[in-house]
Amino acid sequence: MSLTNRRIAVLSPVAWRTPPRQYGAWETVAGNIAEGLVSRGWDVTLFATGDSVTRARLHAVVPRGYEEDSSIDPKVAEYLHISEAFEHAAEFDLIHSHYDFMALAFTRLVKTPVLTTIHGFSSPKIMPVYEKYRDGYFVSISDSDRAPGLNYLATVYNGIDLSLYPFQERGGDHLVFLGRIHPDKGVHLAIQAARLSGLPLLIAGIIQDRSYFREQVEPHLNETIRYIGPVDVAGKNELFARARALLHLNTIPERFGLVLAEANAAGVPVIAMDLGSCREVIQDGQTGFLVQSVDQAVEVLKRLGEIDRYACRQRVRQRFSVDTMVQAYERVYQTIFERQAAR
User: What's this model's pTM, rounded to 2 decimal places?
Assistant: First the structure.
């Protein structure tokens, strides 16, 4: 049987639609994998919300994302969704799960091999589940975001659809923050950098921590530091067109940082804290700058002229495109099929 004749189930989360309208990194990646596999001739079924958009076969039992419809109970939706995929496991040669630790509980109940892409460890409290199923098949999304003892087959960087992010040759005069409004993402540090540099700042993203927004973001909003709410792809591109640089002054190690690749794809330099995967996504001095503090972030703003915006896009094309990601996953799938055949 040729590789692409294999039947693949891609298990996407159901917090948001796949692909998401605005926020939803895991759904974005799961959708990109499904679309990329279909383009390369694979037989793919996407398990996602009923309103999802895909060229794969769509299998859905949850009509809409629970973050978008408050009438849907998250846990009920999640377990209806996950169990549905595993009840159909015999129809597939591989289940590719993007569902964190919860789906692992089903993996020993089916004969179909399961590959789990770990999009991050949200809390030490979930680690006992990973430890119980440590001999499963795992992929990390960066070398920096790995837990010891798990059976990692590879690191596969997340891939984006470059056609969604047109190249912005010149950019604008604004600093941009794009991401969750949460202390982890360092919105307050982006505000400090903007105030110290005297440059205007546009802030976009879902408010995930409302007390943080009220206490550390909202009091600083004015004519030059603005919060514009969540944005879709078109909204991101409007921001990138106005961006001198993207600020990503994260306070914890980054797991991957999809927005870093999206900004670079548009030619926008990124200034990021040197924590976690940021040094894997951003090439210091070439596609942006890695810093250790707000003061350093302000200093490197003076060096943005050193960054070749076209080189930013080319690096994304080579390392973080959908094609690059899917080809890497094909190699992982082949490894799994070979190991299964040898059993």
Answer: 0.94
